Amino acid sequence: MAMKPEDVLRAIAAARGEAICIPTMTTAPAWREIAPDDVSVTCVGFMGGASAMGLGLALARPDRRVVVFDGDGSLLMQLGSLATIAGAQPRNLTHLVFKNGVYHTSGSQEIPGGLQVDFVAMAKGAGYRQAYAVRELDDFRKRLPAMLTDPGPLLVELHTGLADKTPMTARGGLPFDRQVETLRTKLVKPR
Amino acid sequence: MPESIPAPLIIDTLKDTFREARQALAAEAQEPSRHQHLGWVLSVPDTHQKSVLAALDKEQALRVVTCATEDEATTAAAGLWMGGEPCVLMIQHAGLYASINTLRGVALDGRVPVFYMIGLLSREKDKAPRESRHSMVRYCEPLLDTFGVPHARLEGPNDVHLIPEYYRLAQKRRGPAAVLVGLETL
Asked: Which residues, 6 or more positions from B182, have their beta carbon under 8 angstroms from its beta carbon?
């Protein structure tokens, strides 16, 4: 049985330490509830941008782990980011792809290729240092510490079901510009 | 008449721009930068600025990240800025058109000071870009105007002062700003 995204996010929240997290699309509402005080910024409104935003943050802050919560449909929108990330080789970037085979937010239309799309093969082909799939929650929990510490770029394809909420059914949270400002303030620490 | 700008002049100007940006950040932040280099160049290779990109290959003080798309470059720039790092995007007009939703969603809505150097590939030397027979040249400035992005044109070596000015303007306005490279760099 596919993992519940909320269970995966709860496990990450418990283990993330000081990691910067970048949820996108259907992980966003749940993450807001699970980790409301987290160092994170949500990518909605420029679908596909989470991976490159994670790259920028990872390059800027090599002392912090950066964890991208990508979607399969989202990643397909900027698939070239796999090569861009691999080219830059950020050792502190963990790229989690929540794979459910559909565009959940817009009504669960199947993504091109559906569940056959192999992001592990793509990440390896692009030049990620590691890439593998996880299908069971117990396995995810077991491997999570390594996902947060192994040298990146590291991609994990997470076989998940649908989240309970989407950005369309659960609007809210800080506007994007305030999220950006808040995260920058936490990272730059103005005097 | 517009003139081409030598690559070393652009690179030296970028270095000065980033030095100033780092000084400003040092005054603002409690912690020192974690990087030795001056700043980042996010590039989607542009024929118009290829001499600059070639010269950057030998540069230690500026770190270049080649991106597959301008969307990625814009979003990565936002990540760098949140982490306190100065950067410039070097792209061409076609890439601006390709990434306009990201400019809107990230730089405008997110109020992120993304600074662009945009090559006007195929711009005719004897025509203002708005009168170009090439749509990719003609639409660039009107598009930036539509989105409220301040911009200026580098029409020769005497205009490189616009690079730090528009970089500062982006920071001050907390949004995108652009300089357009009028002729192919030398």
From this structure: B2, B120, B123, B129, B153, B154, B155, B156
